[in-house]
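Priority: low. Protein: Gt1. Input follows.
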Amino acid sequence: MFTFSICTYNHSKYIIQHLESIKYIINEYSHEQKTHLLICDDYSTDDTIYKIEKWLDKNSDIFKKHKLVKSKINQGTVSNFKTLISNIETPYFKLLAGDDIYNKYDVVNRYSSKNLIVGFSLPFNLSKNNYFEDIQSNYFTRQRMFLLNNNSNFFKKYIIANNSLSAPGMGYNIEWLKDEDLNNYFNEIKYIEDRPLWYFIFKNKKINIELELTPYVLYRTNVGVTSKSSKFHQEYLNDLKKIDKLFFKDTGYANKLFKKLYFKILFNIYKKNIFSYSKKISRYESNIKSNFTEYQKHIDFIINKAEGFESEN
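Result:
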């Protein structure tokens, strides 16, 4: 069994699009009554809950089980993430925020794995005629580096060096996330759950990695996706500082100069071996770009479905 799990906070403008993209996957790949839906809302102050409940009134029958968990106070991303994990009842799941969209591929089958899936997600911007116009060349540079160094030791160093993976594309073993020791990595951190989670897994778990280059998730880059105050930004910066200290205390390093060392090591590894994968990644890059039109059509289809639902309800 598989759970579509969603963390929401003031996602009223986009949550129906997200839910319609889930419905598309279920209908397209015949997953009716084979999946769970779990939504954890961190005390949204807009119409997010109202819209979710309206949508469930019409569509809950496509799921074997559905659950909406509503917080009575705004706790922050990390606490909402913990609540979500504690409520997952299936061996496999995929976690996204309520403003992202699933691509047209069968995410249920692909993410039903006990291995760590290091996946990629495509950023899109609806304000552009070409939704994928903002994608930079370094998007494909990361794929090159990951193809060359597909092992847990590399990824551990990559994260310590202050790099990020593509959070919307990641897939986890639920047993890792239910580990009580993981809570120690979240002490005093309110808004950033991904980097502590990644480091905890790479440091403490014996893992097999599956590198997935197909974009199963499309994530929104429009300005103002979620309402954030100046207080939020300050607390977010404080979280970054705490995570920095956590990483270097845990590894026994005293200062940030080692970050530069990690960067240099990783770059040298990449530079020495890039040519062996240049043709392979070039084919991949061409293939992804050749699908941009199809992906844009999929986004438009989902948006039209969402607009149709909201106009009728």
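The chain has one domain: 2-312. The beta strands are 2-8, 35-41, 65-70, 92-97, 101-102, 116-124, 209-220.
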